[in-house]
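Example record used in the benchmark description.
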Amino acid sequence: MLAPDARIYLCGRVTVERNGRALTEAAIGGRQGRLLFTYLGTRRTQPVSRPQLIGAIWESRTPPSVETAINAIVSKLQIKPYPTLEALSATYEIACQEYGAKDLNPLALWDMHWVKELDDEGFIDALIQDMT
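Model output (structure tokens):
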């Protein structure tokens, strides 16, 4: 699912925009990333297989290391690990047991605006990179 503050422009030069700013070429995977966004954007209601993606990006000129290449491009589209409902629930349970926070709204423990700000600054990307 596309973030609510994101837009993909498929007419003219393919552009991906977040928070009113266009993402850099590198952020979307360069020319091949633009092809991938275009292909997926025009088929957003349909499942797409890896062979279809490979065909859309390279047609009949697939590189010898096509699996490595497609993995690198697709990895830029991976969903980031934002807190799940289970994580919110577990945090609330710990806060109630250990800190007496029974009167607190469970969502008050998580400020998603702050998490989004961290994401926009690249902090979450850096954490993910450190874990891999």
